[in-house]
Design a protein that fits this description.
Layout (H helix, E strand, L loop, with lengths): L1 H16 L4 H26 L1 H11 L5 H53 L7 H12 L9
């Protein structure tokens, strides 16, 4: 541990052995002037009308009545938006149920049309043979005008 303490003291001694030049002085003076200027600007902003109002607002324990009024209006607007969202969700659910009923009705309608448009197929084998035989023979007798 003694070695660690001696190394830091050596670094400190070496740092102090470097000469303090005019460039170092100007650098230190410019940093000091910039910090003083920033502090002066902050104090001047605090003495302005808007700055003093901000300070009073920041340091007061209770919010001003204007802020409380704005907060109550925001709460009312949020409540109105929430009610609107609820109404829209209920309307969407109602329309979805209606669309489902219409789709079921449309499916029933199209399936009944499909079964009605199909020709009746005879079930006896002799009737099937007669039908296929009559369809296979073309009509050769044409009337001439």
């Amino acid at each position: 541990m003694a070695a660690a303490g001696s190394s830091t003291s050596r670094e400190r001694e070496e740092r102090f052995k470097t000469p303090f030049t005019m460039g170092s002085l100007w650098r230190l003076a410019s940093w000091g002037a910039a910090s003083v200027l920033a502090l002066a600007i902050a104090v001047a902003a605090g003495f302005s009308e808007n700055g003093s109002q901000r300070l009073v607002l920041a340091l007061s324990p209770n919010p001003p009545p204007e802020r409380a009024y704005e907060a109550s209006r925001a709460a009312e607007a949020n409540a109105a938006l929430l009610e609107t969202v609820r109404l829209l969700a209920a309307e969407r659910d109602r329309l979805a149920a209606r669309m489902a009923r219409l789709e079921r009705h449309f499916d029933d309608l199209t399936s009944s049309i499909a079964t009605a448009s199909q020709p009746a197929v005879p079930t006896s084998p002799s009737a099937q043979g007669m039908r296929s035989g009559s369809e296979a023979r073309p009509n050769r007798h044409k009337r001439r005008a």
